[in-house]
Amino acid sequence: MKIPSDTLRRPLSIARIGRGDLRLGVEISVFTSPHFIHTPRFGLPPARDSLGSAPKRTPKMFLAKRLIGGILDVVSNIDPAQFVPSDPPPPRRPLVYAEQHENDEEKQFRRVFQQLAGEDMEVSPNELMNILNKILTKHSDMKTDGFSIESCRSMVAVMDSDSTGKLGFHEFKYLWNNIKKWQGIYKSYDEDRSGVIGADELPNAFRAAGFPLNDQLFQMIIRRYSDESGNMDFDNYIGCLVRLDAMCRAFKTLDKDDNGTIKVNIQEWLQLTMYS
Known about the structure:
Elements: H1 14-19, H2 59-76, H3 95-101, H4 104-117, H5 125-136, H6 149-159, H7 169-189, H8 202-208, H9 215-225, H10 234-254, H11 266-274
Helix pairs in contact: 5-6, 6-10, 7-8, 7-10
Main location: membrane
Subcellular location: Cell membrane; Cytoplasm
Protein name: EF-hand domain-containing protein
């Protein structure tokens, strides 16, 4: 896979790919193999030749490729045809342009955003944490430990399309609208009104949010985001869906042939996943 030279000025990110403004071209390989093949080593007698030595494979490189291959297998098990993401946030526009083309609802939201974001008109992870936790105080029916700074850093990272470390107006609005939508789903699938969603309630809750996942991925999500009893509270539910939404949008953008598979090398994969 080649990265166009005009995209090298900014680092790759899940948010940029998911937004669709990044176009990656694909090189067709002469030969590929899905498995690591063990072969014996051979030595050549001293001679003058034009062959350069190949980079030495190390156990760490092998394990890294196996791990990344496993992650891609799990993500590709999501049926692309069934995944229904929200429209990605549009590219940033100059403030004058935005004000001239916004409807009354957007103008009202922008005024609220200005109050929340402050003078720099961007929301940092710490500001996002304060905003979300302040909202939670008004919803005592939802069990939560509150949004941590780490979970808010993660949410900002997967939504941060220009890699500033903060959310602009459209990025924040996209996140805000999703949180409101997912909050309604969370409450409707908390059938026993316990304030949490149990493991038996999670599949329908994720399906209603647009993520029809298989059993293997559900088990991974439960181990990562639920407590020892398999219950998921509100902040973990939102954090999981934000990441899942961003990863699926990025995957669909990279799936040029619409066949449920993508090709990336280890350097590109690490650039996309480490800032998320």
